[in-house]
Description:
Layout: H1 10-24, E1 47-53, E2 67-72, E3 75-79, H2 85-91, E4 101-103, H3 109-112, H4 115-121, E5 136-137, H5 142-147
Parallel strand pairs: 3-4, 4-5
Antiparallel strand pairs: 1-2, 2-3
Amino acid sequence: MTDHGTAPNPVMLATIAAFALLSTGAAAQESEPSQQIIAPEAAEDDIVVTLLGTGTPDPRIDRFGASILVNAAGQNLLFDAGRGAVIRLEQIGVSPGAIDQLFVTHYHSDHINGLADLWLTSRLPPHGNRQTPFPMTGPTTARCWLARI
């Protein structure tokens, strides 16, 4: 809860916005597949939400799996890593290694089947060369689930 005397935490606001998009179905609209969308740069106080994929479990070339990038307070927050998340990140000029935190909302395949690609690609030198653990937040069973992949 925010004290009335202080400004709200932009990362918390971004988290709420992304979950609202996922839960209300507002992410159901997607641009034409041939159209390349570049995420705008975020000013220091801005929160920028980029829908990377809004698809379903069906493997469709015109609709990647669920994934939302939120840039807030200089951090790249990724909500879900559906099929094609890494491709979409590269298309908008965000290196997979530049993801500061991954939030997994639930374990449906269209929200997680790009997770291994994201984790592995972030460790490759041209895509971030991540040397530190990949920070992830998920449902209470996330630690147990990740230990099994």
